[in-house]
Amino acid sequence: MSVNTTRRVILGAALAGATVLGSWLPASAQETIKVGILHSLSGTMAISETTLKDVMLMLIDEQNKKGGVLGKKLEAVVVDPASNWPLFAEKARELITKDKVSAVFGCWTSVSRKSVLPVFKELNSILFYPVQYEGEESERNVFYTGAAPNQQAIPAVDYLAKEEKVQRWVLAGTDYVYPRTTNKILEAYLKSKGVKQEDILINYTPFGHSDWQTIVSDIKKFGTAGKKTAVVSTINGDANVPFYKELGNQGIKATDIPVVAFSVGEEELAGIDTKPLLGHLAAWNYFQSVKTPENDAFIKQWKAYKKNDKAVTNDPMEAHVIGFAMWVKAVEKAKSFDPDKVIDALPGIEAPNLTGGISKMLPNHHITKPVLIGEIKADGQFDVVSKTGLVAGDAWSKELDGSKDLVGDWVEKKCGNFNVKTGKCGGA
Amino acid sequence: MISRFLLQNMDKRGYAFLAIVAAIGILVPLLNLAVPAGSPLHVPTSTMSLWGKYLCYALLAISLDLVWGYCGILSLGHGAFFALGGYAMGMYLMRQIGSRGTYGNPILPDFMVFLNWQELPWYWYGFSSFPFAMLMVLLAPGLLAFIFGWFAFRSRVTGVYLSIITQALTYALLLAFFRNDMGFGGNNGLTDFKDILGFNVQAQATRAALFSMTCVMLIAGFLIARGIVVSKLGKVVIAIRDAESRTRFLGYRVDRFKLFVFTVSACMAGVAGALYVPQVGIINPSEFAPANSIETVIWVAVGGRGTLVGAALGAVVVNYAKTVFTSGFMAPYWLFALGALFVFVTIFMPKGILGTAQQLWEKRRKPAPTATPEPAPAE
Amino acid sequence: MRIVSCLLRMIALATLLALQPGVASAQGADEAFTRLGADSFSDTNRAIELLIVNAHPQAAAIIEALAAGRLLAGAGAVVIKTTDGKILDARTGSALAAEPAGLAPVRLNNGVRRTIQGALGGLGLLNPDPAKRISAAEAVFKSRDVALLPVLEGAIAKETDAKAKAALRQAQAAILVAKSDAPPFDRIAAIDVLRERGDQDALATLRSLPADSSPALKEAQGRAVSAIEGKLALWRAGQNLWYGLSLGSVLLLAAIGLAITFGVMGVINMAHGEMVMLGAYTTFIVQEVIRTRFPGLFDYSLLIAVPLAFMVAGLVGIAIERGVIRFLYGRPLETLLATWGISLILQQAVRTAFGPTNREVGAPNFMSGAVEIGQLAITWNRLWIIVFAGLVFAALLAILKLTPIGLQMRAVTQNRRMASAMGIRTGRVDALTFGLGSGVAGLAGVALSQIDNVSPNLGQSYIIDSFMVVVFGGVGNLWGTLISAMTLGVANKLLEPYAGAVLGKIALLVFIILFIQKRPRGLFALKGRAVEA
Amino acid sequence: MNASNPGALTSSLLYLDGVSVSFDGFKAIRGLSLTIEPGEMRAIIGPNGAGKTTMMDIITGKTKPDVGTVMFGGSIDLTKLDEAAIANLGIGRKFQKPTVFDFHTIEDNILLALKAPRSVAKTLFWKTAAAQAKRIDDILGIIKLGDARDRLAGSLSHGQKQWLEIGMLLAQDPKLLLVDEPAAGMTDGETAETAVLLKEIAKDHSVIVVEHDMGFIRELGVKVTVLHEGSVLAEGPLDVVSANERVVEVYLGR
Which residue of C has its CA nearest to D21? Predict the structure, then answer.
């Protein structure tokens, strides 16, 4: 066989392989109900999203052991949108039209959600979105199981003001929509509490910012004006490790200037030496260290599933646990997998969260959750120092001019942006 | 005269390409709209919009092949022109939403309302008009390419230096567009479009029309690019690629030729971006990511550079492979496949799919090959 | 509430000073122990106060154990776990046979930690160790606790160590400035002491001067503040310069390997960032092994990782050169495509092997914390990275200029055919050169693991900057790379305070684009006929 | 742009005076002065590093002199123009190493060189007229590559490439031809033919030939300029020059 024939054979084989793969994919057993998992397994977001895929696989596995839903086994369909936003939309379309999934659990970043939104609306399917986000949205086809700003940011600021007597605030974030909105809301909130403009420092950095020397020293300087100062960090995933390393090295201790973060959980801390970070805070709706029977069982199950005794759990994972349980209950209540029926059945459904309460799906498609404040411990876990009762998620922030009159209500008003002042649907 | 210009010396491959694209452009929307969903001949809307995306990429690849394959300018920033065209279209689509946004503001797009902007920034004026937006689709990337090229080519920045500063260009734009203060929606970009020219972008018929339009533009882009490369100007451009200073000593103003091709190419990339946005439904700064531009280069290399048809083929093949590999059991491993494909192609198929196929074909026809010159030296 | 507690503490300290144990009320102490077991932060706070107020003989031991997380409480018992594992009854300090059941460590939050700091600060003012006295004085300086003034005065009177005395005086001054009923003369003197100290904290303390102070005081304060601010502005410029050098050294480390593979060999190595990543992961593995097998060696982990990272990245580099790149010489732009493919494969391979999440790489002791030189905060890790970058640069220069293999490398890259004709095995030299460049990238990975994420995406975030540095400096010139890295680093950091991180970076990118127009071959380009041919 | 320009400062076609240039401190050309008359053919010789190629670079605009005057056609200052402008004035250049467009056919190589408007728009909508086609045929005939016109230039032998390049020079129809080592790497037969060709060309063009091959120069039989260390050492007929003591010294070593 000459070199050229070999080459041709390889080429042919590769092409044939691709074709076979293409045609093989849609064919599968008929009797199962498909559930789509839309989380990036490669690219920059894989760091956060991969575990969510695993959690979903585990939950579906468990459900099947219990006999599935409505007597049918569930089948997970995993796709990789590769941290590429248009690819999210493409994959969502593929899941809904080609694989005919009954619901999709997925997305992490706001932009990925925004990208798939039109697809879910057009094809009328269901998305469970498990991450804390900036709010200002309530869509018929999306169920938001992560925190809205009022379920994370505001209670955290309240805690600092009350317990730590903080009077001066640094709002540091990555320059994208979630921090921008959260900081806008916080700024308005703090001013309403009598904090002066000169006592608020807002700073934005690009994604993946890695050189924090200047900013950390600015924070240090801002913090020596004679008033108790705290940092509210909406810094996104990747940039956190160098940020905290710089904080530790410049000797900013939690007792001097505490940092409360909204995007740093157990998963992120696993990559940092946490000893210098002792006492810095995070606000979430769930911590692995919460001691409840539900949580203990979940952690045990997760460690067994991952075959790793050091595997950590975090807040978005809990959101998927709640969301999945709610979906199963809603399907059972509707006695159907039909999206319209499930969407109608979901509001009002209750499911236990892992911190000892019962979360409820609200008419605005957000859920009720407790807000927990945790301090970083030396072992990379959080010590819960404050816990609120169940807080209802606001789709529209009451602190922003544009949205203070809006409510989402898919039960009575059948509208995501109902204006209570004008009594009309559609924002204005 | 124009048709003479566009069709001169058309070869079999070119006609085949035109025929295929034209057939796709007519048949696919027809099979989507006219054939009932149950029929085996029916083309689902998802497939159609997927292929619409591939064809936009094909146009982008042709635009890159024009500068890289024929003029030796390896642009690692072509994604920037694509994205600028996309943003121009996106801005038009945003303005079309009107008061149907979540906040119901008749002028400001949602993301501005929600960050408390009071009025529309001046650079958003005019985008409510379709002709103006289409003009900007050509002008924004074209002007950027013209200004950038004006400086770079006059200063005789060539080779890897040029490649790296085109990369710097797209990287700087990436950072700039990520900034929310720029007024382009930051990381979330522009999305949730409603209408284009009064038609619902989600509607099946609109999608079909957009698909056909993409085919038309791909044909137009191909004809223009081909018209350029087979003209005497094309010969000059190839001469520049192979021996730049020699061309200069023949009296050709190399910088002007490069500038012309580069600008035309950028406009073409802008058109591709403009068609891409309504079909995909979002435009966001990540389109400026240097990795995207590199990937475009790879499509061209895979298909065969300096062939135009090959570039389009490469774009479709690589993206189809990506679609296939990112689903199912291959999902965690698709990067291995993609990476291996690039290594394989560069080592074993330096002329790409089309070039290799052509070589094999020629070898079969006449067993004694004429001496072919070595590949072009360092660009 | 606070004033009351301060008063109480003052009394308590007075009693402590008098060294009269055993007079405290047993009742208060009992309450303290009950509160310790209540698992509430406010109770714990109160308990600490009670222990001090009542001058409990075990107070110091209990508070220290609490700070270290070795105080266990619950179900009526409070015990101290000593560092060597013994269990002591907290009330008496006597050893217990076994740990009572149902105990949990008393939890801390920032509030409790601050209370502990204050308490230990008060206690520490009289510690026999001068270093401890200084840190106690610092704690008082920050807390500005009026109640501690008498103790401070007593301590100053007894103090013999000059440094400790200065620290104590500063703490005293900090309290006096804000104390409106202190003699004005003392307060003006206090302002002078703070002005002398001249740092950010002194400024903050000066600003805490009550608004209703006398004009004379205000004037003195105003002069002190502007004097300090003027001085600090100078220091800040120095600090920014330092940040710039530090960033420059990071850029240098990231780019210098590329200066070899790209600059010298002409390979557009898009997998360069992944070599850096491999170096960082090697460091991670070394630390994992050390953590589990030889915990004592942790401080040497980076030293051990350096040669290993060099070897791992270097060998992978050689494999890439032999397996892929050698087929592509003379086609530089195609090396770009192939190495891009390789970078995808390496990233995904690491992601598969180590998972997509960040991995923890700890800092050895000598790289933690900071040292203050005047008002300049120099963090150790940055200092060591600058030193390391310098060493790597010098070593690389020495290899290229002084060793036979370096000579061969230069010969092959300048004229491959001639070198080959002279009997140099060009294939071997190519592989070694590429291996060297990759190995150096691996070294960069060791350093970057100290300041950045160790994740599969690590390399991606440095690759573009690295290319900018090499191109700006002039391809093929190591000195150019050095100057370019430092210039870009310093420029970036000097711009950042004015333009912000994003605009600063954009401005630099635009500057590089324009600069290349002016000098199409970078800062240090070879001139003359030969290069242009 | 007529050679007999009324405003001419000199009647010479090419006039170099006091030209110096240095690279990184190395003086490649020092105080070079040279005059070429219309219709003249001049041979330039000199040892390696004498500055022959740099001189050509200066004339064609590739290198700018540090000081000195370079005038063309009496009144045009070449130091102010770039390569393309100089080429369009009518100065053609053949490189030491033959540089043709490998991926173009031989015919296209000539077409690209053919005297015609060089603007972007004119080339984009170019159509070869009958007269121009004939001119191409003629040149192909002269350089004896008529049968190979559809072959890629990259597939030619070294000697053929030299000829193709001369053909391209002819197509440019310049007033002045700069020919750098036309006989390098040629067989004796080819060298002789090249000499004949050059003499033919010199009938209606000014030519500067840089060459090492003394036999070739003798065959050309023209005035010779000897360069050494960047300036003119001697000038005159070959026999006179080669009798010059200093020239002998330079060539044979001291």
Answer: C528
